[in-house]
Structures are given as C-alpha cells and as structure tokens.
Amino acid sequence: MDRKAHVMIIPYPSQGHVGPLMKLAYNLADEGFKVTFVNTESIHTKIMSAIPQEFEEHSLISLVSVPEGLEFNRHGKDRFEEVAERFDHLKNLIEKINRLENDEPITHVIADISVGWALQVSKKMGIKSTAFVPYGSANFALVLQFPKLIEAGIMDVNGIPLKDEFISLSKEIPAWNTNELVWSFHGDQELQKLIFRHFIRETVEYVKISDFLLVNSACELEQSACDLIPNAIPIGPLHASNHFAGNLWPEDSTCLTWLDRQPNGSVIYLAFGSTVVYNKQQFNELAFGLEITGQPFLWVVRSDFTEAEFPDGFLERTANSGKIVKWAPQEKVLAHTSISCFVSHCGWNSTMEGLSMGVPFLCWPYCADQFHNKDTICKNWKVGVGLVPDENGIVTRDEIKGKIEQLVSDKDIKVNSLKLKKMARKSISEGGSSFKNFLSFVEQIKKF
C-alpha cells in the first residue's frame, strides 16, 4: 500500500460485541491497516480504565468515542430524532477524521450487524463497508429466515412465537425451539420485542447494503450453517493472542499464578459473560454446588452478577480450594493445564474460546443464542453436557455437583474436545479456511 488503508470499526456497546471486534482490529493492524475503533463515551471510559498498565498500545490503532446512543433505548419508543442523532454523530466523526488525516482518510467501515445503521451512514458517504456478525453461522442463518417465519405464521411481526414447535434449517444443525430463538428473552416479552425490532428486523437490509459479511466462526466447525449463507466470510475463531482483548473490566491476573499452584486438570472454571444475573436463591445453589464438589474452582463473579451475598461461611470454608475474581483473562485461563472444565453461559465468544482450548463445557444458557449454542456443544460437537433446572427454574446444588462429576469423568467428551480444538486451530492456521478467508478479505479491502 502506498498509503495505509484506514478502517473504522464500530461495535455494539457491550462486552460480547466489543471483544471480537477488538481482536479483529489487531489482526487488521498487524496486516498494516490503520484502525479507528469507535465506542460510546461510557464504554470508551471503561475500556481505557481496564487497559493494563504494562500494555503497549498498537501504533496503528486509535480508540475514540462518540456520544451515547449506539445502543437501543430499553425504556423508550423509537424516535426519528434519536436515529438522526446517531447518523449525525458518526457522519461528523468520519468527516472530522478525514479532515485531520486527509492523507489517510477512512477507506472502509466495519460495523457490528447490531449497529447496522452505521452501514447506512457509510453507504451514504460513499465508503465501502463490512457487516460483522459476532455470533455463530447457524444462528445468523436463522435470523435471515425471519421473514419466512412470519409468513408461515410461526411468529408475529414482533418476533413473538405463535406456535410451540421446532424450526429446522438442516439435518446437520440442531433444531430451534420457538421459545429459544436468537432474540428470545425469557420472562420479559417487551424486551424481546425491542431486541427483535432493533437487532433482527433490519438485518436482511443491512446485509444487502454491505459489501462484505464477516462471521466469527469457521467452516471446519459449522460447515452446514456456512453453506446456508454462501456470501458470508467466516474468519474465526478470533483470538486476542497477546493483544488487549477489549475488556470492560480490569483483568485480575493473580488467578493465573493461583492456577499455577493447582494440579493439572483439577480446576472448575466458572464464568457467565457480561450480562447474566442470578437471584439470591440461584446464587446460593451455585455456591453450595461448588463447595460440595470438593474440587478446586476459579469463579468469575462480576460486581453486578448478583445482589446476594455469599452464603455464610462459604468464603472461609473454600479459602484453600477456591479463587474468586471480578474478571479474568479468559483465553489464558482456558489454555491453562490446570483447568478441568468450563461452566459457561454459552455465549458465542466463550464457546469459541473454550472450544479453541479443548476444554469440556458444562452448559448453563441464559438468553438469546446461548440455548442453541448449548445444543451445538452437546449434540453436534459432543464436547459438553447441559444443566437442567428443576420445576421452579432453579439449577440445584445436587444438579451442579452431579453434572460436574459426569462431565469430568466422560472420556469421550475429553477426546472430542481435543479433536475440536485441533479443528479450530487448523481453521486459523496457514492453509485453514478462516486463515485464507481473512487474507482474501484483507487483499480486497486494500483496493478501496
């Protein structure tokens, strides 16, 4: 390149969306691209606070912010002026950057499909664009089918199921229960409608107006799903490697030295992403379930994970066997030889990270795509088992203990986990499908 191509990356403002696009940003910078990474002011502040002191910034990546408004309004109605403000904020930022850096203006925009309106801004400004899908190919294939689901009377125009049945797109892909779709949010139908309206309904149009479509997955892992969306470019699993992973909370790296002191294959690792919240009863059952296993554990408990306190005496009784942190360097944790299994909410990023490290899963989905991810983990890949709530919707301590014991003693699951690890690693290694897809994508966007 005579001059550096300049890519602007715009994630949806939450951990599960910022993380994979930050990894992509570093991959592009390593290929010589200049990258401007755009967050809302609140997310930008969290990221800057979470960056380790010893971290060396990449000279080609700039982190910038725009006023709040990238996210949907949870409590309000759609307002044309809000959408107009979003357009204006982004348009003004691009124009400002292009004035200041007229030798290296923005040549390409990569936007999370959840903020697809940014692709509309890009198109109006004559800038080529890429839509980025932060979840799996199978779930995205289902999203693209939503007009047909409405037409068939399976759901209404707000994404609410009208029939209790299963939806199948392929014999090789687990079917979806209509109550466990990508936009499902149990117990809050209004929120489910908002999710459908803001994240799903415009997706087909966003795909049409973008020049490229990237997915954080691999053909080696989801071949049948990839076949359903032939215009998609799988480039995953994306890894942070030694780069900053785009965390919104500071990582507690003391857990790594703690893991060094534990026997190989002994530690239960528990992490539930950035949005899962448990009530007091469920939190207590989880704590007691861990305690009665008698196994070492590393448990990530965010400050907003629960309003409950730890059960009386729990911290004292488990002081020698457990380690609790607010946020962990997850890829490094999962790669550690002391890890036995991963108790996970099955968010797509966690799924890709656990799979890439060959760690068996104990699946505990919470909402959205996590239910289908669990089915893929347990039924297709056969690298995990699922927790089953009781009649009151609570996963009991005995269920937790029993499933952990079942998981860690299942030799077939361990063999499958190592097999899938090789497949995931192969996809991003030289000659792998994602490796070749990424290099091809890089060469194409260099031309603009």
Automatic annotation (TrEMBL):
InterPro entries named in the record: UDP_glucos_trans (IPR002213)
A GO term for molecular function: quercetin 3-O-glucosyltransferase activity
Keywords: Transferase
Pfam families documented for this protein: UDPGT
Domain of life: Eukaryota
Entry's family note: Belongs to the UDP-glycosyltransferase family.
Protein's recorded name: Glycosyltransferase
